[in-house]
Amino acid sequence: MAADRLRLIRSANIGPVSYAQLLARFGTATAAIDAIPMLAARGGGRAPVLADPRLIDREMATVARLGGQYLFSDDPDYPPLLAALENAPPALILRGDRALLGRPGIAMVGARNASAAACRFARQLGHDLANEGVVVVSGLARGIDTAAHVGALGGQMGDGGTIAVVATGMDIAFPPENAELQERIAREALLIAEQPPGTEPRARHFPYRNRIIAGLAMGTVVVEAAPKSGSLITARLAAEAGREVMAVPGSPLDPRAQGCNQLIRDGATLVQNVADILEQVRPIDPRMVRMPTSPFGGAPPEDASDAERRAITALLGAVAVPVDELIRQSGAAPAIVQTVLLELELAGRLERHAGGRVSLTG
Q: In the 8-state DSSP scheme, what is residue 74?
């Protein structure tokens, strides 16, 4: 039932990993919701506050009124490239042409205060990629993102197009000056939001947005980026997912080019034209991506004994540690370790970090 799945996603202490584990263990969101108090008690805490069903009904009605639709992670149309991420979003809200999700995509990101030359180059790359049947994925930010989207919208003579992933609700335009462009993308291409309608821009949501951008694409192109910028975070996420990372070189005298030049020095592919991009990704077919294994390590989920629960919890602390290391040191089966971590997370005692690492809270 879609409402129960959405209620599970919108509840406290339940992220993408725990959502997938709950469904793998209990089969349905309804059964998982019923089991949460018991699991949280085993984790040594109170059950998380579950989302109010009335709020879920209101959200679904708002999405329908806005012309949007939900795409859940178990839907056959869910993009395999995105599904391959450990923390793939359990639900997306779409408005526009969902067929674009089945076509090869390239992410293009860069500086918000980009130079005129870089914006022109990004616009041309977006146009040429779309004409080659490639979907340009970006985040609808100022500067390079905007240029990439505009270029792709103007280059849809082929089967390409553009996908805009926003960090807000789909009814909120950020930046405000892109409201018209956001509406045009929703009409002519595809707009994606992970957050519910009405969500205003918040700093913590942008990294979530970036993982979707990187996850939808076979590779990420960075066009101007300062060191430690959000664009470099997207590039790092793409690399961690095993995707191609490409960058447009710039003058060493321009701070906006330092991030791209650093990426190239560290092994990213240098991009001078659309042919350089296609050369890197054309052999890759998104339908051939290896799907993620069971969140319980390939084995059926099972309950942990009190002794196993104590031993695994004792290995955790304030410093994040890889789950694989917990499995190695505890000697427990992967399914047992994942069960204990799920219980701790539902009890509010566990925090998940990038790279499959976990730590105790507080």
A: T
